[in-house]
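Supplementary material to the annual report.
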Amino acid sequence: EDQVTQSPEALRLQEGESSSLNCSYTVSGLRGLFWYRQDPGKGPEFLFTLYSAGEEKEKERLKATLTKKESFLHITAPKPEDSATYLCAVQAEEGNNFNKFYFGSGTKLNVKP
Amino acid sequence: NAGVTQTPKFRVLKTGQSMTLLCAQDMNHEYMYWYRQDPGMGLRLIHYSVGEGTTAKGEVPDGYNVSRLKKQNFLLGLESAAPSQTSVYFCASRLTQGEGNTEAFFGQGTRLTVV
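Predicted assembly:
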């Protein structure tokens, strides 16, 4: 069964303390891996798309990487405004259906000043 | 440019009541989705649509119906609400199935409580 697992469930960091969030997946026929940020009471906001192993993308203090089995979201010198829940989603190919997106349950990040 | 707009934002229903959630997008996207988000379970796909007049079942379709009569609107209906349908519902839209612009844009969510 296709599955997306994120770890840790929650992460508390001091401002400036770098760390990484993990998203491991077991879907077959990966079409894309997506990272989203979700603030309390709001919808997910798109961050990155990764398509193939070895690909990396950066945005401000965030850097996403992809291997054949997992993706990492690296947060460098985080600030309190980076506090949010980070969601990972994978788009799997199932026959001619490219519309299957499987979401992980997210990592709740809390950055303390 | 409003993006994806969901109405209502909050609703309390009694068991057995019916309601319709409306999702509207102004980005001319072909694909639209309805998800529910429950604590510890991530986002689960209820139904989706690949274009005007089309709908398809997702992971958890039971108890829900959908319609896409207009390209910009995607309606989610609950015919007889149950407490198990208490959740936060998100609508999303996506431009195309191709390699580019495949990310989904989400609405702000509808928090539904069934008592």
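Chain A has a mean pLDDT of 91.
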